[in-house]
Amino acid sequence: MGAGRVRCILASLCAAVILVGCESDPSYAGRSSTEWISRLGSSNPADRTEAAITLGKILAIHPRSPTVTNALVGALADSVDQVRLAAAYALALDGVRVKGAVPGVIAALEDTAHAEVRAQAALILGSFGSVARDAVPALTAALKDPSASLRANAVQALGQIDSAAVPSAPSILPLVHDPADYVRLNAVQALLKIRPGAEIAVPAFRDALGDSAFSVRAAAAYALADLGPAAAPAVPELALRLGDHEPAVRRAAAFALGRIGGDAGEITPMLRSALEDADPTVRAAVETALEQIRNAPASHGNAAPPH
C-alpha cells in the first residue's frame, strides 16, 4: 500500500473520530455540552436559563444528541418558569420535536400562575404539531382562559396539531365571536386546519364573513373557498362581500365563489357585477373565478389564492 493511500486512510479515520467526538459531546461557545448541562444545576436561575438556551442551540446542530435532549427534558421540571420555557423552546425545534417533552410543557401550561408563561407554553405546544396530540385536552381547557393571548395561542396550537384536535371544535366555535380580533382570526384558521366537517365549519365561517375586522372576513372567505362546493350555503354572504369596503375581502369573496362553483346561473351574475371593481386585483380575481366556473369541473379547486 502506497504512502499516499495510507495518509488518506489515516485522515479518514481522524475525521471519523472527530465526528464521533462531536456527536457524543457537542460543544458551543467554547464549552462542551457536558459543561452546559452541569450549569442546569446552578443555584442561579440566570445561569440555568442561559444553559437551557445554549443547549437548544447545540440541539439545533446535533438533534440526535440524547444526552442533551434528556437534560432539557429534565429542565422542564425546573422551579423557574423562564428555565422551563427555554428548555421547551429547544425541544420543540424543527427537526427535534421531542415527544417526551410534551408532558412537561403541558405542566407549564396548567400549573403556572403567570398568564404570559401559559401563553408561551401553548405556543410551544403548537410548535410540536401532531406530536402534541396529548395536549389537546389542556389546550381546549385554555380556550376559556381570561387571557386573550392564551386563548389566541391555544386555538392556534390546536390548529397546528391538526386533525387530532377535532374533538376541540365545539370549544373553538365560541372564539369566532371572541372580543379580541386576533383570537377570532386564529379560531377561523384553526377550524379550517382541523376540518371538523362542513356542518360545523360552514355556519362559523358564514358568521365570520360579517366580522368587524377585515382580516377575519377575508380569512373566513378563504376558508369557505377551501371547502369548495360544501360551502354553497354561504354563497349569499359571499356575494355581499363582493361589495366590501376592503379590497382584500372582495378578492377573497370572488376567489371563494369561483371555488364553490355549483349553480353557474346563480354565481356568474354575482361575479360579473364585480368586473367593474375599482381595484385591479379584485377584477383579476373575479375574472379568474369566472374562468373556473366556465371550465368546471375539470379545473375546479386547482387555483391558488390571489394575493
Word description of this protein:
The protein is mainly α and 307 residues long. The chain is 65% helix and 1% strand. The chain has helices at 3-24, 33-39, 45-61, 66-75, 81-91, 102-111, 115-127, 136-142, 148-161, 169-172, 181-194, 198-208, 214-227, 235-241, 247-260, 264-272, 280-295; strands at 27-28, 31-32. A two-stranded antiparallel ribbon has the order 1-2. Strand 1 (27-28) and strand 2 form a beta hairpin. Helix 13 (214-227) packs parallel to helix 15 and helix 16 packs antiparallel against helix 17. It is elongated and about 70 Å long. Residues 6-23 and 298-303 have low confidence and may be disordered.
Write the layout of secondary structure elements.
Layout: H1 3-24, E1 27-28, E2 31-32, H2 33-39, H3 45-61, H4 66-75, H5 81-91, H6 102-111, H7 115-127, H8 136-142, H9 148-161, H10 169-172, H11 181-194, H12 198-208, H13 214-227, H14 235-241, H15 247-260, H16 264-272, H17 280-295
Antiparallel strand pairs: 1-2
Helix pairs in contact: 2-3, 3-4, 3-5, 4-5, 5-6, 5-7, 6-7, 7-9, 8-9, 9-11, 11-12, 11-13, 12-13, 13-15, 14-15, 15-17, 16-17
